[in-house]
């Protein structure tokens, strides 16, 4: 249920088991890009992301989060007492950096906390994981869209993905191996893009050994 444009009540993730615990991260930051991020990760392995402009309709999409990242999310939530207790927000007036909300749900139990900026290390790490998952999905969606509709733009999208990898922003870059292999093996793409995709895929696979 939406209260007003862009801000909706937390709803169960599509297809999620009502008995499974979930951790949800939401960031709302008008005039940023993106303006709205909401990612839900469930203990049963079902997760959704919704990344969009505030005035766009809600459109959560299913995606996969690997067991190590999923486990870390729930460990950090536990360290934060599942978002009960003291506020995480810094008690100083600073610039608006976007309203972040963390929510834990497990059956009838539900707790959430919101902050603009926090110095809590567990909350910061949890926020970075969720922001990284959002960035990762944006990179994947952009690559898939460019590969389908704008082959000449694929190399720019690959360069963006490579930059995010270089800055260690992405929790699971291996999620993009499918599209990288597709680009590397398709002669319809320019050779510079195919070579970059091939090198990135090799880099990801080598990092997992």
Describe the structure.
With 209 residues, the protein is an alpha+beta fold. It has one domain. 38% of the residues lie in helices and 21% in strands. It has helices spanning 67-79, 121-149, 154-166, 177-184, 191-207, and strands at 2-4, 7-8, 22-28, 36-42, 47-52, 61-63, 99-106, 109-115. The strands form 2 sheets. It has a 6-stranded antiparallel sheet with strand order 6-5-4-3-7-8, covered by helices on one side. Strands 1-2 form a two-stranded antiparallel ribbon. β1 (2-4) and β2 form a beta hairpin. α3 (154-166) packs parallel to α5 and α4 runs antiparallel to α5 (191-207). 32% of the residues are buried.
Describe the biggest sheet? 6 strands, antiparallel
The helix content is 25-40%
Radius of gyration: 18 Å
- The number of strands is 8
Strand content: 15-25%
The helix-strand sequence is: EEEEEEHEEHHHH
Shape category: elongated
Q: How much is the average pLDDT?
A: 91
Task: List its traits.
209 residues; alpha+beta; 6-stranded antiparallel beta sheet; two-stranded antiparallel sheet; 5 helices; 38% helix; elongated; disordered N terminus
